[in-house]
């Protein structure tokens, strides 16, 4: 943006355009995905704590996963975020008989959900929309998530054995994933 004003008038209110905020919005989202289903995506209003996370697992993850895996025949994957590894959360998984994939600390981030988030952001950037408020941002995120082709999440999840093999072959170093 070019601004034309007389010399030494930089801070004269007549030549200053006020911005009330940066125009940026951020939201906290949580989602799950599997080879059989894009899962669910939800907006989390609160700061994520172990208490909030176990509530998400109880009220959102379990009911929606059971639709896809009625026999509870699945392995849950998550990173080593302190909230995910908190005693309360570990105890919750144990009490509910949910098998959680062991994830070494300082490991490469191979979780397919990260690729899903990147695809959502890429889709939103393609549309070049400036959001006026958080509701518009939430709508755009949800639409981008649901617009991803079914084969995308299926292929991502089915790539897990190869991802793990590549990390093993690279002695835990970086891979293309």
From TrEMBL:
Family annotation (Pfam families): DDE_3
MF-aspect GO terms: nucleic acid binding
InterPro entries per record: RNaseH_sf, Tc1-like_DDE_dom, Transposase_5
Stretches that traverse the bilayer: none
Domain Tc1-like transposase DDE intervals: 21-137
PANTHER family according to UniProt: TRANSPOSABLE ELEMENT TC1 TRANSPOSASE (PTHR23022:SF134), TRANSPOSABLE ELEMENT-RELATED (PTHR23022)
Protein name: Tc1-like transposase DDE domain-containing protein
The species this protein was found in: Tenebrio molitor (Yellow mealworm beetle)
